[in-house]
Amino acid sequence: MILALIGNQNCGKTTLFNQLTGSNQHVGNFPGVTVDRKEGIVRRHKGVTAVDLPGIYSLSPYSGEELLTRDYLIGERPDAIINIVDASNIERNLYLTLQLLVLDIPMVVALNMMDEVRSNGGMILTQKMSEALGVPVIPISAGKNEGVDELLDETVRVARTHQKPRIVDFCGGAVHRTIHSVAHLIEDHAERLNLSPRFASVKIVEGDNPLLTKLSLSENEQETLDHMVSEMETESGTDRKAAVADMRYAFIEKLVGETVTKPVESLQHRRSVDIDKILTHRFLAIPVFLLIMGLVFFLTFGLIGPFLSDLLGTAIESLTEITRQAMMGIQFNQVVISLVCDGIFAGVGSVLSFLPTIVVLFLFLSILEDSGYMARVAFVMDRLLRKIGLSGRSFVPMLIGFGCTVPAVMAARTLPGERDRKMTILLSPFFSCSAKLPIYGMITMAFFPNDAALVMIILYVGGILSALLVGLLMKKTIFRGISSPFIMELPNYRLPSLKSVVLLLYEKAKDFVTKAFTLIFLASIAVWFLTSFDWRMNVSPDGLGSMLSGIGQVISPVFAPIGLGDWRVVTALVTGFVSKETVVSTLTVLTGSSSASLPEALAAMMTPAAAASFLAFSLLYTPCVAAIAAVARETRSKMTAFGMVVFQTGFAWSAAWLVYRIMSLIS
Amino acid sequence: MTLGELPVGKEAMILAVNGRGVIRDRLLDMGLTPRTRIMIRKVAPLGDPIELSVRSYALTLRKEDANNIIVEAAEA
């Protein structure tokens, strides 16, 4: 049995999903955090699956999210719909409910956030509302896990008994009559497509042309339809779309008037207005944003991250030594000791020690997102992003890019408009992802230990400036045209739930550790193998005659002009194609050092100018394979992904050249 | 007057939503239908977009789109 969770953005849908399934899925407060549908096995009920779909406001065929949800509901026909309605914002939430009702699928309305409504002195007559809507209405509070069991039992019952929504007439008048007649007219066509005639009729009357084409009406039927619609437009004195929207809201206003006692003032709303007095203040908003981001970066890279990372690094170091001693003690083969200690331990360990920093960064990003602040950032930054032809909404995927490019690219799916989506996707790799942190950490430790935070800020800002530059370039060349609309809800600020933050961090940490023990593990072994042996499979003690050195030496002339002629550096950068963490592990293995002795080895290999060039190149060059694959998937074009790789690498080379020249002049 | 011309903090009622296409559909879907009461709560720091209070929630949209919404200021 499949239950589909449908609701507006910010209605607590994902929180409910977590409660139902106990699954660890991200909860976000920014419109459109759920970018793909997620499934989870429901607790307490055998054989019941819950599907979490993107938050939507309507079933119109314009945004990708809405189409996805609509196609899912019509194509896969879940056994029941749980329509989550934010009771504290009930009118707009019920607008979607009215559209779902005509789908003719068993459904239950979950009135969420009832705790807030009650504590503010509001009241909702659920029984009366249920009678008016023709479906069960269950009050819940997903965050506190209240009413969730009852909701689930009721939904399962409705699904088992195939209890479809009772047919409710939303109004009398012209619109109603037209929908009724059109439903008769197109009945056969709709049923052929497995659609509820009423749903198809409403959509056609609204002016859903893609659906109209699918129905393939005869010329006669088309004429009758046009006639009906134009009569309705004359009678209601407005156009078809407005007439239908008006009909829905009129019904909702009447229903809400009869069943809802709204609180005089909502505490949560009052609080949001107060917080926004500062966060979206005329003069304070931008300084405060920079301050918040600055604080996040300082805490992550200057304080908590390095402290924990150092601690972990030291622990791994001692573990390596203990292992080496133990293996030497029982006179293990030298090559195997080298494989374990210099290959695997050094490679995996050097990457693993950055785990705390990455977890801390994700902690802050998820708090900013879940609290509702990201939506304000979009509001504040819209004007700026419009200069490069994007909207404020693009800013959020970009900020997520600071965590990881893969979810950033996926988050771009929530953007309306193909052009905005593609451009945001292509720009998000410029927002330095957290996997590049180990590279920056390694270089700053070796070359700029006293200016670590400053170097970090320069890098991150440099990435953003590059994005702006490239964005401007794109706008002038391949992405001409206007940006898509910016019409977005600003949700009330909410305290992120501890549970969802912890679940998210756990998931990120797990991903990272898994990667360290699979991808990085294999890459470390491969790099160790290629450096320890020459082409004739003889052990190459210093790595000079090794296979990898041969490969590196072939490519290194390309990197010589930017000060990175050393084959080991070149090789490390090449392995960065697999994942950015591998750059560090490769250098560690290639220099035959440990995470503690790596800085010294690096200092002997590069000048500070070359180190700066290395940083610039790492910041800007091709993202990792996972991100490239995500770009290819989301843009549905391998050529786009390939073009991006070539462009970014070229761009990175040029920037690194510039940095190298300037730094060489200074020092 | 249009919504874009409405002073911040003044209540008004929507008379018509002009314009066309996706943007207009979106505005209607979000509850900006004729006879709805609205108020501009705030203008973004860079002068655009604006933040509206409508149907007891906060919505943001750009001035150029707000200019397609015809409103009548409520009596003071």
How would you characterize the overall build of this protein?
The complex is a heterodimer of chains A (667) and B (76). Chain A has 30 helices and 9 strands. With 667 residues, chain A is mostly helical. Chain A folds into 3 domains: 2-160, Rossmann fold; 173-261, Helix Hairpins (Orthogonal Bundle); 287-666, no CATH class. A 6-stranded mixed beta sheet of chain A has the order 2-3-1-4-5-7, sandwiched between helices. A two-stranded antiparallel ribbon of chain A has the order 6-8. In chain A, helix 21 (452-476) packs across helix 28 (608-620). The radius of gyration of chain A is 29 Å and the shape is elongated. Chain B has a single domain, classed as Ferrous iron transport protein A (FeoA) (SH3 type barrels, Roll), CATH 2.30.30.90. With 76 residues, chain B is of the alpha+beta class. A 5-stranded antiparallel beta sheet of chain B has the order 4-3-2-1-5. Chain B starts with 10 loop residues before the first strand and ends with a strand.
